[in-house]
Structure formats: structure tokens, C-alpha cells
Amino acid sequence: MSSMLEKMGVTVDQNDLKVKNVAAVMVTATLPPFAKRGNTIDVLVSSIGDASSLQGGTLMLTPLKGVDGNIYAVAQGPVNVGGFSIGGSSATAVKNFPTVGRVLSGAIIEREVPNAFSDRPVVMFSLHTPDFNTAARIVDSINAQLGETYARAKDPGTIEVRVPPQYIGNTVPLLASLSDLEVEPDNDAKVVINERTGTVVMGAQVRISTIAIAHGNLSIVVKESLDTSQPLPLSDGQTVVSPNTAINVQEGGNKLMVVPQGVSIGQVVNALNALGVTPRDLIAIFQAIKAAGALQADLEVI
Predict the structure, then answer these.
(1) Which residues, including other chains, have CB under 8 Å from residue 105's CB and lie 6 or more apart?
(2) What pLDDT score does 219 carry?
(3) Is the pLDDT of residue 220 over 50?
(4) Fewer C-beta within 10 Å: the chain N or C terminus?
């Protein structure tokens, strides 16, 4: 606080300062693509000290540096906190995280990231999920749109498009036309299992080979009891204690069901529902089908 006031031309003795309402914070922001000087962005303010709340606080002028050490934006403004913290000597009430807040449009961009977007002879597309079939479909769709072979797949996750002569120096209309193309992505056959919650999610491409499934619950209950025989009063008899054990065994009556090869996901679900399985049982069944080599999909346990 003393250092900040000195930079503003105010000299104050450090011993005279009371900083109970001052918080040390970390300020972060994400610089969007094609950001220009003078644009504003939101910043996230997080307490890094012992402050209990940032409610009603104001962020002082803060330079935001990149990993290269250059200042790209400066932030300042009131902090918006989506919570509160109140309490007394024996009880407190806290909602959300009052030590974290946002300054809406609180940072002004001072430095632009250099780019030569319109002068590029080649444009690269990066797929979120690399896939050979999806990449091939995108290449075919782009070439059909441009009328010639301008696109090619460098690998399953990268599409390279040569800028046609009529778009050189003006690639924005080119990308605008390509962004409207609809391509159906190819999804891998996968079964995702969450054993903690009993959740099973299957993709539409899941297939199984011909297999017979039988599932039944076996319940065994063993109950121990003691039978006591008391002698008559004033007799010479003795108390007799004899153990008694009762065993009850119950087993589900589900029959063996044959699931044919290559059925769809809907038929698999209907067949398993006919067995009366629960999601927990379904996990064990899919693990057994995978162990038998009949599941034509990846089994992922999370």
C-alpha cells in the first residue's frame, strides 16, 4: 500500500497504515483471437492472501503480462462477487466463493498479437477429435465446394487447404463459405462405464457377436436361533439349549437368451431389459461380454 501511494505522489509512513480492508489478489484473463487494441475483456480476480471476502472491492490498476513478459492489457474496476460471507463470534454463513470475483469488461487490451491472416497461402484446420473417416469427409466436402482439389488431409487431425487464386489476400470470405459446410463426424464404437454411479453409456456403433447371456440373482439367507427348554419348577431337570439353523436360498428365474450377431444398440438394450438387469448388473454383463471377445467396441471404465 505504501509503495502504491508513493507512485501516486503520496508519501505515507508504513507504520500509520491499517490494511485490514486490503486484499492481495491474482488477476487472470484470456486474450481472445484477433483481439485489437482498445477492446475490453473480462478478468478473474482471486484472493491469494487471508482475505475473507472481495465483496464490494475495487481492483486497482493492474498490468496483465503474457508468458513472454510483455504487458498485453491493463485491468481496473469494481469486483463482482457471486456470493457472500457473514458471521459473528460463534457462527458464520458462506454462499459460493466470496474470495473470487470478476471484473466485467475490466481490462483494456494494450498490445495486439501479430498475425498475417489474410496473407496466408495455406489455411490449416485442426480437428478436436482426430479421425481418419472424419478427415476424409471434410476433405471431400471442401473440394466439392471449391470445385477443385484444394484440400488434403496431412494426418487424421489436420486439414490443409490451399487458398484459391480469387481468395488470395481476402481469406475471410473463403472461411465463411467453408464454415457453412455440414460434415457428419465418425464416432468410435465405445461403451463407457462409471462403476461409482452405476452409469452405462453406449454409442450407436456398438455391435456384439452372437452370444448367449444368462443372468440371475442368487440370494442365500442363513438365520441362527437358540431353542431353550426349561425344567419344571422344583424338579431335578436341567436347562437345555439347542441351536437351530434356518437356510433360505432364492435364485432368479431368468432364462438363457441368445443375442444374434450385428444387432443394433436398441436391440441390445431390449434384449438386456428382457433379462431384467439393473444398471449395476449391466456393468458386469458388459465386462463379461468383453472378456468373451464378443463386444465389438471399446470398453472404457471411468
Answers:
(1) 40, 41, 42, 77
(2) 45
(3) no
(4) C
Give per-residue burial for 173-207: e unless 16+ CB within 10 Å, then b.
ebeeebeeeeeeeeeeeebebeeeeeebebeeebb
pLDDT, one tens digit per residue, over 193-213 is: 887 777 778 777 777 777 776
Q: Which residues contact 233 (CB under 8 A, 6 or more apart)?
A: none
pTM passes above 0.70: no
Of residues 246 and 128, the one with the higher pLDDT is 128
Contact by Cβ (8 Å): 243, 211: no
What distance in Å separates the CA atoms of residue 271 and residue 148, rounded to the nearest whole number? 49
Would you give the distance in Å from CA 20 to the centre of its chain?
38
Q: What is the mean pLDDT of residues 161-173?
A: 90
Which pairing describes strands 298-301 and 190-194: parallel, antiparallel, or unpaired?
A: parallel
C-alpha cell belonging to residue 97: 466463493
Distance CA(289)–CA(302), nearest Å, equals 18
